[in-house]
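Dear H.,

Thanks for agreeing to be a second pair of eyes. The structure we're designing against is below in token form, covering all 250 positions.
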């Protein structure tokens, strides 16, 4: 997919998500009590923002992540510094996860700062060039602010789902005619949240392609190295999911 086609696809999908959400919000606020639903919206947004701000600490605990001292792997730190400069961003905190599966991920928040974590499995199974290409991909996520964009968009399905259940529960306690319309609204909002999730997943995939392009652009022969690195990650993951004792076809 060409770079401009990719950018236009992302922009169009983002506009569609925001446009549909705005349309439904307008209908909701015009048919129901504005202040009740406004309060509900503020509450859900506040919860999601708090989750985003403190999520990095939860990620560190779940995936056994800790800062990787430069003295333990100066070569990797130097590579991240160089790739960050090429990406036009500040060097993120380099983290290490004690997980045998090869993987890397970018995350962070204004409180925790930007972070890039690599697993022990990644450093063990991929060569130096492949590791750099994978890290370049993760730096692309930070450069494109994917964490912030996807966090903001993830609020929308949660908001509509919660609103749907509110309508359903309110409908059960109302008169038959009003309760029937409330149930219809509730089911419609829950269904709409599923539609939004589809577009958000599609946008997430587009942004993965965008990060792939970035990783390929900041590393020499980056496309080839990223492709071979990702293939090793996929193969290792598939082997880990195979039943114990199952023979692998070589």
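And this is the sequence the design step returned. I haven't edited it by hand at all.
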């Amino acid at each position: 997919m060409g770079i401009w086609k990719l950018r236009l696809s992302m922009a169009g999908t983002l506009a569609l998500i925001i446009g549909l959400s705005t349309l439904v919000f307008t209908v909701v606020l015009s048919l129901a009590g504005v202040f009740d639903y406004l309060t509900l919206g503020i509450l859900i947004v506040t919860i999601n923002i708090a989750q985003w701000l403190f999520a990095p600490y939860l990620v560190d605990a779940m995936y056994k992540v800790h800062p990787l001292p430069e003295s333990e792997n100066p070569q990797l730190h130097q590579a991240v510094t160089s790739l960050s400069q090429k990406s036009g961003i500040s060097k993120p905190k380099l983290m290490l996860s004690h997980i045998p599966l090869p993987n890397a991920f970018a995350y962070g928040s204004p409180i925790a700062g930007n972070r890039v974590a690599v697993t022990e499995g990644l450093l063990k199974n991929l060569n130096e060039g492949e590791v750099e290409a994978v890290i370049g991909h993760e730096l692309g996520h930070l450069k494109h602010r994917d964490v912030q964009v996807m966090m903001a968009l993830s609020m929308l399905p949660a908001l509509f789902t919660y609103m749907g259940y509110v309508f359903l529960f309110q409908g059960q306690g109302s008169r038959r005619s009003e309760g029937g319309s409330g149930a219809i609204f509730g089911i419609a909002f829950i269904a709409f949240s599923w539609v939004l999730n589809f577009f958000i997943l599609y946008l997430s995939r587009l942004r993965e392609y965008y990060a792939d392009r970035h990783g390929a652009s900041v590393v020499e022969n980056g496309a080839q190295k990223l492709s071979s690195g990702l293939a090793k990650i996929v193969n290792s993951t598939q082997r880990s999911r195979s039943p114990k004792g199952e023979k692998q076809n070589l």
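Two observations from my side: The first helix runs from residue 3 to 31. The two ends are 32 Å apart (CA to CA).

Warmly,
E.
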